[in-house]
Amino acid sequence: MIRSFRLRLGIVHNHDFLWQMTMLLTGPSSSKPAVISGPDASRKPVKRWLASVMASWFLVSAAAVSAGEPAARAWSTQVNDYAHRALNNDNALSVAAIPMNGPGIEQYINADQTMSPGSIMKLVTTYAALEILGPTHHWNTNFYTDGELRGSTLDGNFYVKFGGDPKLTIDDLWSTLRELRGMGIDTITGDLVLDGNVFQLPEGLPSFEDNGNNPYAPFLVEPSGYLANLNLLHFQVRADERGTQAWSSPALDSVVIDNRVTATAEGPCPSRRQFEWQPVFDNDNRVTVRVTGSLPQGCRTSAYLSLLPHEQYSAALIRSLLAETGVTLQGTDRLETTPEDARLMLRITSPDLVSTIRDINKWSSNVMARQLLLTIGAENRIDGEEDDRVAGIRAIYDWLDGKGINTNGMVIDNGAGLTRHGRITARQGAQILLNAWNSPFAADLMASMPLIAMDGTMARRLRNSGMDGEGRIKTGYLENVRSIAGFTRDADNTTWVVVGMVNDDPAWNGQAVLDRVLYSLHHRPPVGTTLSRAP
């Protein structure tokens, strides 16, 4: 199961939000306060710096309002000014912000400009899934046999019919396969046969050309009818007085670790970036992972990698778990359709869709979102459709059209946002969220989204800003793309739909600009008489 690992940050990092605000107010040349550390360090310089930042911000805000600008114009002028200072062009920022249940003035900045959304596209897929598949939708993974039981031996083949579960975990598989021992079975004479025909993908999947120089990264795992345990291997190395020990979970026969990490005296534990994991692939479908670096005693390091094709990984995983439970499988591995007369032996039923979309949106799981799009397609094929990705996209467009939501220029592509081709406007995104607000499943969608400064991909954003838990925001991140979408509350307890996207080269300042949007909506929302600005 994937765990999140949080970096330890010093005091200065806890004030990064206000540093970003200083940069936006005064330009990139502003100096960041010195790092303050140690038990005797005084925080007064930081407090004075924070006070000066907030004073500067209030002066700018007051000047805008005192000049006689309407509230709406003042708010958008400030946001545009911050964006102008931080970004490379005035068209890089697109925003739509709409009050839902209280006073406020709609805000639009380049709202009809098609933008690359990144992972906020997952909100389209997950909301569509809630209404098209239903919140109680489940996936089944079934285990069959065509053989007969003779004592403790199953004389026949063992079939695994995958159902497209986006999160079929190693724990699910282990707890189910161990039931074979409870049935008194310790030997299977036939083959392990995998049936992953749940999806139709005759043209394959569109590729994503990543430039991160790590083709084995978890976020690049593709969907598959054979998906199990997110197709990941969790490698770990620990140092103690004996030296270093390395292992992987799951432990697969086809994966070998060449541990070249040296143990050193006790000291600060290094970053995972200081270790290199290099896979070497053999001609016999085996892979050796060479890990190098230095690790102080008492420390450990880890990495998640996706190294094997789905079919090979899932077969090796099931074989490994069978062996752990004391069941010997004597045959080979095959890919084949399950015979109609095969007998059902075991079944894994996934958690419901509500649980699944929580994992997708909180942690921005690309493979789970893409698997979900394929499920929508497989469940809603119409005559003539042979590709479940295309069918899923068509089903979502039909669903949006039925709600009267304009889809002109929108490009869903793979349902996860992990694409250079995805497109949406801020206004379209806001319209979808407005519709979701009135959906019977609004609470389920909102609960799946990260809480500001508290969890998921928003856990470290807008800390010390007075906004902890005040919004549920999905984030997006690609090269030259930063984005946010969701619901946030202002100081008067009015909920706002907000969608913001930055497409810039580079876009590293985009996060600060979007955080400024959220911060301004909360602390200085544009209130007044009803008014809607043109894009």
Structural commentary:
- The protein is an alpha/beta fold and about 525 residues long.
- The protein folds into 3 domains: about 75-135 and about 355-525, DD-peptidase/beta-lactamase superfamily (Beta-lactamase); about 140-205 and about 310-350, D-tyrosyl-trna(Tyr) Deacylase, Chain: A; about 235-305, no CATH class.
- The chain is about 30% helix and about 20% strand.
- The chain has 14 helices and 20 strands.
- The strands form 5 sheets. A 5-stranded antiparallel β-sheet has the order 2-1-20-19-18, sandwiched between helices. A 5-stranded mixed β-sheet has the order 16-8-6-3-17, with helices on one face. A 4-stranded mixed β-sheet has the order 4-5-7-15, covered by helices on one side.
- Strand 19 and strand 20 form a beta hairpin.
- Helix 2 packs across helix 4, helix 5 (about 120-130) runs parallel beside helix 10 and helix 5 packs across helix 11 (about 390-400).
- It is globular.
- Residues about 1-70 and about 530-535 have low confidence and may be disordered.
The strands making up the biggest β-sheet line up spatially as 2-1-20-19-18
Major pleated sheet: 5 strands, antiparallel
CATH architecture label of the largest domain: 3-Layer(aba) Sandwich
Q: On the 0-100 scale, what is the average pLDDT?
A: 88
What is the top-level CATH class of the largest domain? Answer: Alpha Beta
Distance between the termini: 45 Å
Inertia-based shape: globular
User: What proportion of the residues is helical, as a percent range?
Assistant: 25-40%
CATH superfamily placement of the largest domain: DD-peptidase/beta-lactamase superfamily
Helix/strand class: alpha/beta
What's the count of strands? Answer: 20
Using only C-alpha atoms, the radius of gyration works out to 26 Å
Instruction: List low-pLDDT spans.
Output: 1-68, 529-535
How many helices does DSSP assign?
14
The CATH topology of the largest domain is Beta-lactamase
Number of domains: 3
- Note the beta-strand portion: 15-25%
